[in-house]
Amino acid sequence: MKLTSLLITLLLVTLPVSAEIQTEESVIKETTTSVLKQLNENRDRLKNEPQYIQKLVNELIIPHFDFELMSELVLGSYWQKFNQVQQSCFISGFRNLLVERYAYILLSYDDHEISYGASKYIGNKGYKLVSQTISREGAKPLPIGYAMQLTGDEWKVVDLIIDEISLIRGYSGMFQSWIHTQGRDYFISNFSECNE
User: Fold this and answer.
1) Does residue 5 lie within any of the structural domains?
2) Is residue 175, in this structure, part of any structural domain at all?
3) Based on the structure, what is the number of domains in the chain?
4) How far apart are CA 86 and CA 92, in angstroms?
5) What is the pLDDT of residues 135-191, one digit of tens each?
6) At what angle do helices 167-182 and 84-107 cross, to 10 degrees?
């Protein structure tokens, strides 16, 4: 009985060390390093096999994004006007749209230098911004910002700021204008994920 108590005590004492929250900066750095390693090792396969890109994105990128919150942010007050099925298919469609854009940027990477700035708090919702800059031969460096929020015990991306342009803000204006002029049903029907 004493041995069991001792083991439980040791487990409880060591648990916080193993369950330490990964910093927002390390999430971005480690994810970028993993993706670029795959790019460098499998560039030809990635260019010729779209399904392999999807596999890579599903394994390495998607777990670090909060697509549900991003979808809610991008639709603003219209979010609550969609039913649960429509919300779910929009999350899938918007996720695929963003992942495709992000994957294109990474695929255009050709062993250039990547640097990072210190993360900082932005806004009043507890978001932190992790800054990354990709050098490009013959072009100005490309800055990418990752607005992140602590969700449970994980930092998740809630917006991408590419070359100082927020994807959430850009798509939000476009989508909300589209809904206002064309209607919710027409808008949602433009996502193939909502027509299955």
Assistant:
1) no
2) no
3) 1
4) 10
5) 888 889 989 999 999 988 999 999 999 899 999 999 999 999 999 999 999 999 998
6) 140
